[in-house]
Amino acid sequence: MADLSNTSSPLPKRKPGIFIQFLGSMNLAVTLLVMLAIASVIGTVLQQNQVFQDYIIKFGPFWTQVFNELGLFHVYGAAWFILVLLFLLISTSVCVSRNGPTFLKEIRQYSEKLSLNAYKHQPHSVTYTPESFETETAQSILKQQGYKTKIHQREDGVTVAGLKGRWNRLGYIFTHISIIVICIGALFDSNLLLKYRELTGTLAPETRTVGLDKIPQKSWLGPENFSFRGSVNIAEGQKSDVLFLPYERGFLVQKLPFTIDVKDFRIEYYDTGMPKSFESDIVLSAPDLDKPIEKTIAVNHPLFYKNYAIYQSSFGDGGSLMKLKVHPLLSPTNNPLTLNTAVDKVEPLKTPMGTYRLELNDFKMFNIVPASEEEKAKTGKKMHNNGPTIIFKVRNDQGKAWEYENYMQPSLQDGRWFFMTGMRTSQAEPFRYLFIPADQQRQKTRFFNFLALINNKNKSQEVLKEAFPQEKGVDDRTYQLQMRLLNQLMVLFRQKGFNGISLFVQKNVPAKDQPKVKDYYMGQTSLALQTLYLNVLKQEKVKELDNISDFNKQWFEDAITVINSLPNYGPPMYFELDSFKQIESTGLQITKSPGKDIVYFGSALLIIGVFFLFYVRQKRIWLAYSEKEGTLTIAGKDNKELPEVAKEFQQIVQAVQSKMQVKS
Amino acid sequence: MSTMNSSMEMDQLKKPFSISDIIWTVAVIAGAIYAWKSFGQLMDVYEIGILAGASVGLIAFGKIWPSIRTLSYAVAALSLLALWSYSHHGNQISANEQAFFLKFLISSQSAFMWMSALFVMATVAYFLALFSKSNYVGKVASAIAWSGVAFGLVGMMVRWRESYLINPDYGHIPVSSLYEVFILFAVLTTLIYLYYEQKLRTRSMGGFVMLIVSAAIGFLLWYTFDREAHVIQPLVPALKSYWMKIHVPANFIGYGSFSIAAMVGLAYLVTEKFQTKNPDSQFVKSMPSLESMDDLMYKTVALGFAFFTIATVLGAMWAAEAWGGYWSWDPKETWALIVWLNYAAWLHIRMSKGWRGRPMAMWALVGLLVTTFAFLGVNMFLSGLHSYGEL
């Protein structure tokens, strides 16, 4: 009866070693499955492949060390993870090699040679005395029900054995072999070889951000690397024949056997401002190609060349050219410097306040935000484009950096136009914005004129003197003192804003006089600022200076708000984007994945196997006729005892008895 | 009784083509041709393939399970009515506020609201039927569940059309956002349950299964009213692919089946508890036998596993085309693997160790937690490539 055993581990003929038995055991298999699942959970909960510094901030140095030793930051590449996979592979292989032959045999086995008694002991069996028995009739009944049949002449009669759904057993073999196939395919595409080379010291990832020519030979890979997946950014009009593969805490450079030219990159947007599609026109040329391949690739539409696949994966700035105007914020004249530069460039800046580095990080053509309710009502558009921005850092010689986001065009806020400039000192913070009010020409000219006048001691002194001439009865000394006070207040205001004036009072004035003095100082400051502003308006030839328009009043308020905050704006410079030429870059992902087809084959095998396993039931039926007793035994057995088996067996019995009726 | 039914089934096998079979086949083919004629210019070759495959599949499925035909006729009629109504109003999306049928019945939002109400009502009705032991109430419950499925499917059909009406650029099959797949989940879960309800001739598990559907409806309503998630959004470039049409539904047959398995597991545990207290209690008598619940649990896990396997493989193939690699250890992928490993272990233990009953029922319930995390939790707590349906 061993050949009919219902379990998947029938007693083998030769007892294998304990170790082999352990490897092929169900307990090990399930343990490995669970271990894989737990490892995978860790890999998703703990963010993988992050910058080491981030982990230290999150977990502290001790746990970061522990987690790192355990490989928890690169779970899927960790040695123990690979080991679990390997064990699963071995376990499955042992299981298949042990059970496979038995199952294969079962596929062909009708078990027609059992004794009559054995049939009577099957899970389902009925014995009755028919009026007659014909082998052909029995055979045709079973065939009608979809069984394949085999006939065996016993000494005491005849057995018609039926077998159906034999592919069920193939299901077992397919599913288990498929796991092995998929694992092998995945191994082809893994970085085991690179790991080995790293261990033997012939390979070391590059961790710095340096030019290609400075990357040592140890970080380069050539055609000998048969499987990889990396990315490269190529600006429009540029080409590349290398690829960057992320590897542990750095990257490796993969030399490609072909060159990719990026002719053009295009991006389209929906009316919501979301990207709708992005695509690149690329030309692939290789020494062995007669004619370069020209193709437009887009997301979901890669280019396949030999066993390489080239995908559109991202986009960015490819070094847009730009003309900047640098406004020194403490300068006594409005005389910005012009700077011609490009994204990704670093410009040294020598100022009287020290040396800085300007790092141009990014340029964005569009900044699309939800439209305000009014705008939606007016234009019917859901989204609003705030126009181009530059994103850059200014770094002092101690390495401290301020990051900025400056808009090129003014945007409308509460019915007024402002140029926004955002600043932050840490990536973790959001930008905090200053709103530089635009003048009536929607320019920043007035603002910088005003600012320069406040900064300019001599000129502002002149203006103030002109506005407040020495009155009769005021002696020279008092007048000088008054003028000097105004001047000092301006300096204080520019250095630390209104807050600076309060602090000055707190520090230098006896407590009981503080409120009075503070009020006086604030009043004088406002007076001086208003006077200077009037002068700016006069220079602009604004009429009706005694009846200042609402716009100009509001403008003054807004400008003072900005100037008050300038002391917290970082290095005293404002970078104005004057003009630009956008150069986009396309982010390509290139893979060579020899294991892919193996994995696909394994997957197909898996799916077919699963369906065989679950939806094909292996069923056996025997009609054993005893000539001596004139009885017919109908017996049935399925490989899985489901509730419907009994019902289906009854159905067979009915079908048989309708043809070979019970003898009355 | 059982033999009578089986001979009926046999008769059906013997007569392969009845008149209703022919009508069904012709109707599906006509529908497919109509779809192809009307919208073929928007389809690529793969999508035409999917249309053909879906038609053949539907014809075959209608043969296996005739109830699906009635459902399809109803869904088709109502969807066509909605399409006609839109075109009668100049194909303007604003018609969903003007045209009577659209406003109150079959614009996608109205249909989803009907679906939600019906599913919750079905849950109540199934439990009422269970406790009152009324066969009539049970039939009503089934009818309500069927209507809910019909409205859900109509809503999806109409939403598909509406996405094109809003802006031809936006147009896509409504299985792209968390909101849309929740509807898919509710509809598929109920439909799979109804299949087993007919097959096993018992309605006593309906309330249990519909509990999870009602929970999904609760989420859906919150998501609609609090987050306005029902607004049709355009697709991100990565989702613009024919793969979505097969990957997502296959996945949700999996999720739906696993959910049913878990709820049957719950029913099993409750019944077992009552049985140990009082084997003759009315509740135990009105529930199916523990063995048949155990078997149903196995069947639904197996169904879910098969489709989940397909979905994961399809997902890998899509990933290979969109992201440049069939496997990236992205959180969603990894959690799909975890779900798969969990049920693989479940099936192994049941098949080869022969575990049955209580532990398996509890495991199926735990499996639901794992599945829910893969479905929802990943979107909520983990970032990655699958960040389409953020809460």
Can you describe this structure?
In chain A, helix 11 (457-467) packs across helix 12. In chain A, the strands form six sheets. In chain A, strands 14, 15, 18, 19, 20, 21 and 22 form a seven-stranded antiparallel sheet that branches. Chain A has a five-stranded antiparallel sheet with strand order 1-26-25-3-2. Chain A is an alpha+beta fold and 664 residues long. With 391 residues, chain B is an all-alpha fold. Helices cover 79% and strands 0% of the residues of chain B. Chain B has helices spanning 2-14, 19-39, 45-64, 67-88, 95-98, 100-106, 108-132, 135-166, 178-200, 206-225, 243-277, 282-286, 290-322, 331-353, 358-381. At the A-B interface, helix 2, strand 8, strand 11, strand 24 and helix 15 of A face helix 1, helix 13 and helix 14 of B.
Instruction: State the shape of chain A.
Output: elongated
The low-pLDDT segments of chain B are 1-14
Oligomer class = heterodimer
Low-confidence stretches of chain A: 1-12
Helix content of chain B: over 70%
Tally the beta strands of chain B: 0
* Rg of chain B computed from alpha carbons, rounded to a whole number of angstroms: 21 Å
Mean pLDDT of chain B: 89
Number of alpha- plus pi-helical segments of chain A? 16
Order of helices and strands of chain B: HHHHHHHHHHHHHHH
Net shape of chain B: globular
Report how far the terminal alpha carbons of chain B are from each other.
51 Å
Give a quick summary of the entry.
The complex is a heterodimer of chains A (664) and B (391). With 664 residues, chain A is of the alpha+beta class.
Question: What attributes does this structure have?
Answer:
heterodimer; A: 664 residues; alpha+beta; seven-stranded antiparallel beta sheet; five-stranded antiparallel beta sheet; 26 strands; 39% helix; 29% strand; elongated; B: 391 residues; mainly alpha; 15 helices; globular; disordered N terminus
Topology of helices and strands:
The complex is a heterodimer of chains A (664) and B (391).
Chain A lengths: L17 H6 L2 H20 L6 H18 L9 H30 L7 H5 L3 E5 L6 H10 L3 E6 L3 E8 L2 H22 L3 H8 L20 E2 L6 E8 L3 E9 L2 E20 L5 E11 L7 E6 L4 E3 L2 E10 L3 E8 L8 E6 L3 E6 L2 E11 L3 E3 L2 H7 L3 E3 L3 E8 L4 E7 L3 E3 L2 E9 L7 E6 L7 H11 L1 H11 L8 H33 L5 H26 L10 H16 L7 E9 L2 E9 L3 H20 L3 E8 L4 E8 L4 H17 L5
Parallel strand pairs in A: 4-7
Antiparallel strand pairs in A: 1-26, 2-3, 3-25, 5-24, 6-7, 7-8, 8-9, 10-11, 11-24, 12-13, 12-23, 14-15, 15-18, 16-17, 18-19, 19-21, 20-21, 21-22, 25-26
Chain B lengths: L1 H13 L4 H21 L5 H20 L2 H22 L6 H4 L1 H7 L1 H25 L2 H32 L11 H23 L5 H20 L17 H35 L4 H5 L3 H33 L8 H23 L4 H24 L10
